[in-house]
Design goal:
The complex is a heterodimer of chains A (477) and B (440). Chain A has 477 residues and is mainly alpha-helical. Chain A has helices at 19-23, 29-36, 42-67, 73-94, 102-126, 131-156, 161-169, 177-196, 198-206, 208-213, 218-240, 245-256, 263-287, 293-311, 317-347, 365-368, 372-384, 401-424, 432-440, 445-458; strands at residues 7-10, 359-360, 388-391, 396-399. Chain A has a 3-stranded antiparallel beta sheet. The chains are: A mainly alpha (477), B mainly alpha (440).
């Protein structure tokens, strides 16, 4: 025998058939609907409501903790509750009381949780260890101590340790109606308190020195904030479990941060995301009793985080990518038009006039060096906006009258800017092309008018003015 | 072979070996995590490999080592990459990015685990946390002569063997790349500019952390892994300022934790009068915490007590010097010597008074007044001289106003070393200080 380990083998090989099916057995739609609309019995409704309120509280309070850069402090705190739970159980049993009474266990959890936070602070303050090491040390050592105590309780064989270990992974099924009411009402109260203190929290989160300077008791406010974090963590132990409760404090605010730059909105969004995660997660757990609620709640929050990170309009990853792609297309389009205009200029001494002759693509430097995909999009965009169309089987570009006017305007902007750089920024004529390239796309009409005025005051200003450097194939257009 | 030895060989020895190897390999890697302020990366990885383990188990259909190792290592790498992605693309602060990624991964792992359990596959969620050191078992030989035969050795449990290999690989990594890892730990930018990519080293380190985490997982559980990654290295960091001694001390701390913790867990039941052993992984973690606490308080260089002691000593020195200088100034002004003022017995002033009396720098007249002895007067003269030299310097060289220099000179006089004193008197000083008092 080579060590049983803890991964006992499958009892048979049947499970290769359909893993997905077995992982998520189908539930009837009506049952799902009944649970989601809180009509699956009073008990389940109270539990789901409790989890929703918990999610709301964790989201709101987590928002402040995240902005105060205390996100992982919650992790140390949550792990540090385990020895408290075990010790409270032992103490209550020794005093002849009911060991597994939720309020007693939660008080024990809160005590060692706070001790854990104080230990992190003391280590950071009094030793050369940094915060990450302090958090890691506290969470592992306190948790290890808790594991030892749990194994001691188990060895006494009188305590129901099964009840205690639900605190590690969380189990809404183990929640009684009274427990859920307790959790829900404490969560609601802490949300109210957090919202009442919103203004003070906000100032301290963004600039604690400013807060101190205007006379706010920063230490006290920090203490209140941490107390709220402790409360949420402790009441979340049963529903979510101590390993994952920190996720409820981190994920909703991190997701909400993608949607807004304003604190009040972020707090509300974070609370909303937390509440939704709690609601859906507890519902799923009610539907599939073996599914640990904490994990489902966290996975729901994780899905919302992913959606926010990708799709949020202001800071989302996809929106940012789309914005930068749009800018690149815009730049490519303008370079093409200006390239065409300069080619027309080189063909005749008079300024190009409508209708202009077709320009061979090979003469436009911007086009010949463009990525094929970008050129494809540029072509489409030029045609869609009625600025230019391809002619002669795609070998030449014919500007429309509107396209010619636009090209003239762009060329003019470019040269105005070059002119400005040469005269006002003392840059050599041979070096301005590139910097002009970078800014010309974002010149506002006001700025162009201003440039024109100042240049006109210095002398003649043709339309567009001649280039300050020779235009040729070797130069960037 | 006596039965107790047989028990030792069959259960304790393999478990002890597994715990020791896990502790040593984690402690070695932990040194670099602690220095790079990435201690929590170990925590994150050890939580996040769970879905990799379960998925590998579900796909391969066996709990043999290799598929699970590959699955978990993949999950570890995915975690590192995801944390970077969330941090950079999402512009989320590093701690929060880590928290988001590892908690989601862990939640996914727990859900997979529970669903797998529903399919009569007994993967135990608890063992992920605590490990099952107690379940590692070896059918040892019955006689000493059989101990090293091939047949017996081939029966040796898998976990300690895997962990031994991982430990050897880790030792090889730390030995071969010591210089590079050290550089990257202290100054990643310099390392990159010298041609060792700090990012590449980071990923190599993370790969090894993932490997150590995975190998340790089954035997000792994630919580012990996290503790062993951080606690011994943190302990060593408080005891030494050089990296090589730090690495060695951390290994020593890991060994003490593993052996001591295991022994405590095994023997505790006899004291407590309970039938079953306590959790060995939990006890090893606790011992490593005790070691760290001891280092925090008692480290001779960085310990809280040592620092406190240095402060107290300095305070007493300053109080003694102030006492001597005050008496000297009174003598100078021809004022009567004062009586000792009442101060708390534990205050620096009262210690200073007793010290000066014991050194025969001052003496107490029968009426209770304090008076400088000849030794004391010499010492006081030197101090007053330093003080007035500083005042002169501050006025002449630093252009401060004469009535603004006393407090600064008062601070500096206690901290003036002989070379600085020599520097102060390089030019012959004037006979009096800026306030017109003679420089002795």
């Amino acid at each position: 025998m080579t060590g049983a380990g803890c991964w006992a083998a499958a009892t048979s090989g049947q499970w290769t058939s359909s893993i997905a099916h077995s992982l998520f057995p189908p539930a009837s739609f009506s049952e799902l609907l009944r649970i989601l609309t809180l009509r699956s019995g009073y008990n389940a409704a109270v539990v789901i409501l409790g989890a929703t309120l918990l999610g709301l509280a964790a989201g709101v309070i987590g928002a402040f903790a995240l902005l105060r850069k205390r996100a992982l402090m919650g992790d140390a705190l949550a792990h540090a509750t385990l020895p408290g739970i075990a010790a409270a159980f032992l103490a209550a049993t020794a005093l002849g009381g009911q060991g597994r009474s939720l309020p007693v266990l939660l008080v024990g959890a809160a005590i060692t949780g706070v001790l854990g936070i104080l230990a992190v602070h003391a280590i950071v303050r009094h030793t050369r260890l940094k915060e990450d090491a302090a958090i890691g040390v506290v969470l592992s050592v306190f948790f290890g101590l808790g594991v030892v105590l749990l194994s001691y309780i188990q060895s006494l064989q009188q305590g129901n340790v099964g009840g205690l270990s639900t605190f590690i992974y969380g189990q809404t099924a183990a929640m009684s109606r009274a427990d859920a009411l307790l959790i829900g009402s404490v969560a609601a109260a802490s949300v109210v308190l957090a919202l009442l203190l919103m203004k003070e929290f906000r100032v301290v989160c963004f600039d604690d020195r400013f807060a101190a300077a205007i006379g706010l008791p920063v230490g006290l406010i920090d203490l209140l904030m941490m107390t709220l974090v402790v409360i949420v963590t402790v009441i979340g132990l049963q529903a979510v479990g101590l390993i994952l409760i920190v996720a409820m404090l981190i994920i909703p605010p991190a997701a909400a941060r993608f949607w807004t730059e304003r604190m009040a909105r972020m707090t509300l969004a974070s609370g909303g995301i937390g509440a939704l995660s709690g609601y859906l997660g507890a519902s799923a757990s009610a539907l599939l009793p073996r599914l640990p609620a904490g994990s489902v709640i966290v996975l729901t929050a994780g899905a919302l985080f992913l959606l926010s990170m990708l799709l949020a309009p202001s800071r989302g990853v996809l929106t940012a990518a789309l914005r930068s792609a749009r800018l690149r297309l815009h730049v490519a389009l303008e370079h093409t038009l200006r390239g065409a205009y300069e080619t027309l200029e080189s063909q005749s001494p008079a300024p190009p006039s409508a209708p202009p002759p077709p320009v061979p693509l090979s003469a436009i430097h911007a086009v010949t060096t463009m990525h094929p995909l970008l050129w494809l999009l540029t072509k489409l965009s030029l045609r869609r906006r009625g600025l230019a169309a391809l002619a002669d089987a795609g070998a030449t570009l014919r500007l429309t009258p509107r396209g010619l006017a636009e090209a003239a305007r762009l060329t003019r902007n470019h040269r105005l800017w070059e002119e400005y750089l040469v005269t006002h920024a003392d840059i050599a004529p041979s070096h301005v092309d590139r910097s002009a390239d970078l800014v010309e796309h974002i010149l506002s009409p006001d700025l162009v008018a201003d440039l024109e005025r100042s240049l006109r005051a210095r002398g003649e200003l043709p339309t567009p003015p001649p280039s300050v450097h020779p235009i040729g194939k070797g130069l960037r257009t | 072979m006596p039965p107790s030895l047989h028990t030792f060989l069959s259960t304790d020895l393999p478990a002890l070996l597994a715990a020791t190897f896990a502790a040593v390999s984690c402690a070695l890697l932990g040194n670099f995590l602690v220095l790079r302020r990435q201690s929590l990366m170990g925590d994150a990885i050890s939580h996040a490999v769970l879905p990799g383990l379960v998925a590998a188990f579900l796909i391969a259909g066996t709990r043999s080592a290799w598929p699970m190792f590959v699955g978990a290592a993949l999950a570890g790498v995915v975690t590192v990459v995801l944390v970077e992605l969330v941090r950079r693309l999402g512009r989320v602060e590093p701690g929060a990015a880590m928290g988001v990624v590892f908690s989601i991964m862990f939640a996914l792992g727990v859900v997979l685990l529970e669903r797998a359990a529903a399919r009569h596959v007994d993967l135990d969620a608890d063992c992920v946390l605590y490990g099952q050191l107690e379940l590692i078992f070896w059918f040892p030989p019955n006689t000493w002569s059989d101990l090293l035969t091939l047949d017996t050795l081939s029966q040796f449990p898998r976990q300690p063997t895997t962990l031994a290999v991982v430990t050897l690989l880790t030792i090889a990594l730390v030995t071969l790349l010591f210089k590079e890892l050290r550089l990257a730990a202290f100054d990643p930018d310099l390392a990159t500019s010298l041609g060792f990519s700090a990012t590449a080293l980071h990923f190599i380190l993370m790969l090894f952390v993932a490997g150590a985490v995975v190998a340790s997982f089954e035997a000792v559980g994630s919580i012990l892994v996290v503790a062993m990654l951080i606690c011994p290295a943190a302990t060593a960091r408080l005891l030494t300022d050089r990296l090589l001694p730090q690495v060695l001390v951390s290994v020593l701390a890991a060994l003490i934790s593993a052996l001591g913790g295991y022994a405590l867990a095994a023997t505790a039941p006899t004291w407590l009068g309970t039938p079953k052993a306590l959790s060995a992984a939990g006890m090893i973690t606790t011992v490593s915490g005790v070691l760290l606490t001891a280092a925090i308080f008692f480290s001779p260089t960085h310990g809280v007590l040592a620092k406190r002691l240095r402060h107290v000593r300095l305070a007493i020195t300053i109080a003694r010097e102030d006492l001597l200088a005050t008496l000297y100034r009174l003598e100078e002004a021809n004022q009567p010597p004062p009586a000792a003022a009442q101060s708390s017995v534990l205050s620096p002033q009262s210690f200073a008074l007793r010290l000066a009396l014991r050194n025969h720098e001052i003496e107490q007249t029968p009426s209770g007044a304090l008076r400088l002895t000849e030794t004391g007067r010499d010492a006081a003269r030197r101090l007053i001289r330093t003080h007035r030299l500083w005042e002169t310097y501050l006025v002449e060289a630093a252009n401060l106003r004469p009535d603004h220099v006393h407090d600064t000179a008062e601070t500096l006089e206690h901290l003036t070393t002989p070379p600085i004193h020599a520097e102060l008197t390089r030019h012959p000083p004037p006979p009096t200080d800026p306030q017109g008092k003679p420089i002795p």
